[in-house]
Design a protein that fits this description.
This protein has 185 residues and is an all-alpha fold. It has 9 helices and no strands. Helix 7 packs across helix 9. The N and C termini lie close together (9 Å).
């Protein structure tokens, strides 16, 4: 389903110059620029999201990129964000995740993932918007602790919290294309 937001969209020619490359890339990949144009109303927030969240935490934090890309792709898949699924698939492949792994994300427990990746993907299911009562059980914590430090787990949780919060934002504001199966549409 294509977005139909009631929010003001800032056209490309009126965007903050820092957002123009994002608009161009979004147009090329998705054919729809609603997300960037609405974010154009608050360019400082858009820059925080791209520079601070992605630049300083997602791509520069303690947790390796492959794990982060797997959990991001899992969350997009569970949430039914077509926009995110396209972008996150490309990012996952660029991070060294194989086509077979990308294709197995829906049934990761039976997929070609190691125990570390499966534990992180299970944590993503706990963090997903569709799991309102999700909580880290002691058995899951122990599986996670076999592969991650507490600092990495805090960071991973915060990353997923921001991703799920952004998912809520983009769905509530109707900013992106959704999959037909999207449970949040």
């Amino acid at each position: 389903m294509l977005p139909d937001t009631p929010f003001n969209r800032v056209p490309r020619e009126a965007l903050d110059t820092a957002l123009v490359p994002m608009w161009d890339a979004t147009k090329k990949l998705h054919g729809d620029t609603t997300f960037v144009e609405v974010m154009g109303n608050a360019p400082d927030v858009a820059k925080w999201y791209t520079d601070r969240f992605y630049g300083d935490l997602f791509y520069s934090g303690r947790v390796d990129k492959k794990v982060l890309e797997l959990v991001r792709l899992r969350l997009a898949n569970v949430h039914g964000c077509a926009f995110c699924n396209r972008s996150d698939r490309i990012a996952a492949l660029s991070a060294g995740i194989s086509e077979a792994e990308v294709d197995a994300i829906g049934d990761y427990a039976a997929g070609p993932f190691d125990d570390r990746q499966k534990a992180a993907l299970e944590l993503a299911d706990v963090m997903a918007l569709t799991n309102a009562k999700g909580a880290v059980s002691k058995p899951l914590y122990h599986r996670l602790k076999a592969h991650f430090s507490d600092a990495e787990l805090v960071e991973l949780g915060v990353v997923m919290a921001v991703l799920t919060g952004m998912a809520k934002f983009i769905f509530a504001y109707d900013l992106v294309e959704k999959e037909v199966y999207c449970p949040l549409a």
